[in-house]
Amino acid sequence: MGSSAKKKKDKKKDFQVLVPKQFLLTTQSLIAFLQKPKLKVGKARPKASNFTDTSFKSKAIVVNQQSLTPAAPSLSSQFSHHLSLLTSRSDSQRRDSLSYLTTAVAARPVNAPLQQPVSVILPSLLPLLLDGNNNVRTQLLKLLRSLPPRDVEDHVSQLLLYIRAGMTHLAADIRSSSIDVLGWLLELAGPELVSCAGGWMKTLKCFLAMLGWPNEVTAGAWSTSKASFGKGGSEGKIMVKNLNTLASFLRAGLVPVNESQDPPFVSKFPLWHVQHQLLPKVSNCYAHLNLFGPPRDEESEIYEDREARQRIFHVRFQCAIEAALEAAKREGGEVGRAAAAVKKTLVEGMDGFEQEEDF
Fold it and tell me: pTM score, two decimals?
């Protein structure tokens, strides 16, 4: 090495910073350090692409009770289990349980008894008439239609309590579903419905409240309705359904069922009408006078014969309903035609009432 090279080397040593070997940063390590993402204060470290989050937050953990046994549960135990699930908080669980019960009732052999009697099934089903989920109420109606009619007839008054509560509910969907259930019950047990305690007068009041008709008529008023009847769309269809159900209800309570025709020997014996036809059809024919009984509750009273229902209807409801029907007929459309059908049923049901009173 020449003298010039030696001098340059010594001069370089004079200006070199003495740094420990472990702190020396190469160019590649410096670039990697600068490219590394820096964490901000208060921020979580970023997760890897294959990170699996196993943490969870839950207010409650629901574990269905299960049992590992070699023998499967019986149909009766499964039926009771799904009945108990009707009080579940999950809408889908209530709907699925109703679907299972409907299938179990419909799939039973002909004339075979139910897994549980209707007196046990109905207390679990009736609160669902006021359920807030439309699918649950639709499935409930399917289940009610699959029940044996003869067993349901004995529980009409129990059903009617929840139906009237649904008819006066604030939610329009629940009112519509209650009308569907009432229509089914009228087809199944119409005479039993109108003749049970409170089945005639209380149900009529619910109809008036639902339709927006007043109980009394104001003299000189053109219309007794608080709202217009001729609404299109879903509101008009709901009004038509309500009026059709009202017509069925009035038909069940006022129109005589299977009017008996005169026997062939009547022409030979004219006095048969006087001696037999005019006899009272109920055991206590003067019960409406209430001569020695306690004060009555008209709403909760049992009107078991047509004459009693005609009498209370004429006194309390006939004028108001006729005036409201006339206003509805003036609106025209489907609602007008439905109101005309109700009017026709009303005229047919009250036919002969005044003649009987005069007699």
Answer: 0.68
